[in-house]
Write a structure and sequence with these properties.
Elements (H helix, E strand, L loop, with lengths): L6 E4 L7 H9 L12 E6 L10 E3 L2 E12 L2 H19 L5 H15 L4 E12 L4 E4 L4 H14 L6 E2 L6 H11 L6 E10 L7 E4 L6 H9 L3 E9 L3 E6 L4 E6 L1 H9 L4 H26 L7
Antiparallel strand pairs: 1-6, 1-7, 2-4, 3-4, 4-5, 5-6, 8-9, 8-10, 10-11, 11-12
Helix pairs in contact: 2-3, 5-6, 7-8
């Protein structure tokens, strides 16, 4: 149950205790897609069926949005619609017009939906009321927005805002590489992406490759700016920081996972141990990363 990405929000003044949040989420549980529904969204238990919808430890909480989607590719709808249109053309002696084709596609979709397979995915969010942090394990903003939209429908007076730092992540990362000096507690790893301004958007990517200071400096002097940089925090968490302050490829080092495993005797206990250790690490890592970027912008 280890996060792999972070989209970080400021949750200043979070006043919703776990039991109250549990009651709110219980009003919007995930339900299976209906015969004519393309998708369904609702809250699920992070620990698995039958467990609470809010998993908490050490004052921090974990919630999970479940999404069930019908698998009905546009190419399949098009294939059936074309076959139906050809049959109608033979019957009426001329090709269907635009309006008729649109109606054919709609009818085909209605007929195929009840037979479509479904898939389910889960997006997790971590809440640290004491620190005032809210982070979503999402690889893109669309999934983060999806969870936030559902949470705002579920919880009244929700106050969350994307964290904005005093220094832009792109500018700060470029400065770290230019000076060959990362902020305290962080080390620079071997993955990096640099982008040149202008229409051509010339891009240089390093993948598991030493970042030679002279070579990097030449790119910076050419006007390129860092858009992604692999870093490690305190020899405990490795990650890739993006210019929009999204954290990806988040990896808790083996020592932490071994510690969690040593404290657990069952899968149930392992989940508890994983969350407790991950939660404690995130509570220290997120503020350190924000501080490395100059702290937060004033509201």
């Amino acid at each position: 149950m280890w996060f792999r990405n972070l989209v970080v929000y400021r949750a200043a003044g979070w006043q919703i205790p776990a039991d109250q949040l549990e009651q709110a989420l219980a009003r919007q549980p995930l339900a299976a897609c209906g015969a004519m529904d393309m998708d369904s969204r609702g809250w699920v238990a992070p620990k698995g069926e039958g467990a609470p919808l809010v998993h908490s430890a050490g004052g921090r909480m974990l919630i999970a949005l479940g999404v069930e989607q019908k698998l009905l590719p546009a190419s399949v709808i098009k294939q059936y619609a074309q076959k139906r249109a050809a049959e109608i053309e033979r019957q009426q002696g001329f090709r269907p017009g635009r309006k008729q084709l649109r109606e054919i596609r709609e009818r085909v979709t209605e007929e195929l939906l009840p037979r479509a397979f479904t898939r389910r995915r889960t997006t997790y969010a971590w809440i640290d009321p004491a620190g005032g942090w809210f982070a979503i394990d999402a690889a893109n903003m669309a999934k983060a927005d999806e969870l936030l939209e559902m949470l705002r429908k579920t919880v009244d007076d929700l106050s969350l805002a994307l964290v904005k730092t005093r220094f832009s992540p792109g500018g700060a990362m470029t400065g770290w590489l230019a000076a060959d000096e990362p902020p305290g507690g962080f080390t620079i790893d071997r993955d990096c992406e640099m982008l040149a301004p202008g229409e051509e958007k010339a891009t240089v990517r390093y993948l598991r490759h030493p970042l030679e200071p002279k070579e990097i400096q030449a790119h910076i002097e050419d006007g390129k700016q860092v858009t992604k940089l692999a870093l490690t925090w305190n020899d405990r968490i490795s990650f890739v920081l993006h210019e929009n302050f999204q954290v990806k490829r988040l990896a808790f080092l083996d020592l932490l996972k071994e510690q969690a495993e040593s404290q657990a005797e069952s899968a149930d206990e392992l989940f508890d141990s994983d969350f407790a250790i991950m939660s404690g690490e995130l509570a220290r890592f997120v503020p350190d990363l924000v501080e490395a970027l100059g702290g937060e912008q004033p509201a």
